[in-house]
Amino acid sequence: MSCKTRFVCVSDTHNASPADGAFKLPDGDVLVHAGDLTNQGTYAEIRKTLDWIEAADFEAKIVIAGNHDITLDERFYAEYGLCFHNQYPQDSRACIDLFKDYPSITYLNHESATIRLTKKGGPRTTFKVFGSPLSPANGLWAFGYLPEEAEKLWGQMPLDADVVLTHTPPKYHCDESKGRGAAGCEFLRRALSQVRPRLAICGHVHEGRGAERVRWDLESSHVQFKELDTRYWVDPGLNNKKQCVLDLTIKGALPLENSDDVQAVNPYPHTNSNDLSRNDFASWRSKNVAADSPIQPVQNPAASIGQDISQPSTARHDTHESTHATKHFLSLPSKPHSSAVPNHPVLPHTNISTHSTAIDILKAPEDGWRMGRKETCVINAAIMASSRRHADSGSDSSRMAKVFNKAIVVDVDMPVSVNK
What we know:
This protein is an alpha/beta fold. It is 15% helix and 23% strand. It contains eight helices and 19 strands. It has helices spanning 43-55, 74-80, 92-97, 147-154, 186-195, 278-288, 358-363, 365-368; strands at 2-10, 30-33, 60-63, 105-107, 111-116, 126-132, 135-136, 144-145, 163-166, 176-177, 181-182, 199-202, 210-216, 227-232, 244-247, 375-380, 384-391, 398-404, 408-415. The strands form five sheets. The protein has a seven-stranded mixed β-sheet, with no helix packed on it. A six-stranded mixed β-sheet has the order 4-3-2-1-19-15, with helices on one face. It is globular. The relative contact order is 0.18.
């Protein structure tokens, strides 16, 4: 059983707040902030941001940091802090401990939490959220990781996450940047294809603000991390006074195809999908999956999501409502050369052999009753849009004027608590 839960999503506020008039917070059940709370993570900046989040009227508030919140990355600040705050060094530990003063805020640092909404008159739903401030290293900023670290880091995402909250977007989804092209993380995209949460909320790339609905291909026997298609959201609140609402509920025009309610045979009748151990899964696989079934590695990075690189892409972020953009895919050989050395990522949180194919993973008992997770909605909720230079009236001087986006409101069905 599920019930509509309203998420109000923001990111990249960079010291801006509703009190400043920069943006408004619509009513909702859960407030989510996907990082870059501040410009440079000073104690005063963090406290100001946490003040308005704590005061906001939401039953749950979930927050992660971003690359600009430099004091919240203790190791980074110890090494590079003086490059930012040479005159007024900040106490990184004190900045992190600030969150203890705000009991209504759930702060996640590459970790997960179970959120239970119990307010009378509310949806009374329960969901698991994984939150991480990490993003691919780009310049001297916090929470960055190198390409060779990405697979292991995103492999720590729990398979039963309903909501994934990251600062960086996944590759090719809500990540389009004028200066860097597709600036998201491919290994995050791969992890999402395995976990398949209802929502993947992010920010970081301001130009990528918007939403995309990604349907995963669960039937391909030769290509891992494959997408069936992507549908682009048309913002109803663009250039008007309406709210930016995305309805993914069963009562909406196009419900999200994502549910754990799909019935399947459980090979472990003593357990359920939430407490099946990785050891049980690895044991099952060792008995049922051949160890000599390699798949050919993808040599061209552009084809890593199975996209047909022989044809120009027709997908656009400004497509009209009727657009149903379908990506083309390259299939890997079904009988690869015996000397192929697999180098693809594996299912997060498992000891699966790198010789497993995509269909091996989908046949495993871990995924047997998760086949209803067919679609993920990726939301880039960046509030800061850009800074534009405006000439002052009657003067030759000019000033920078900040431009802000609206918060994105997402209605989605979440599991109802057992004790509702």
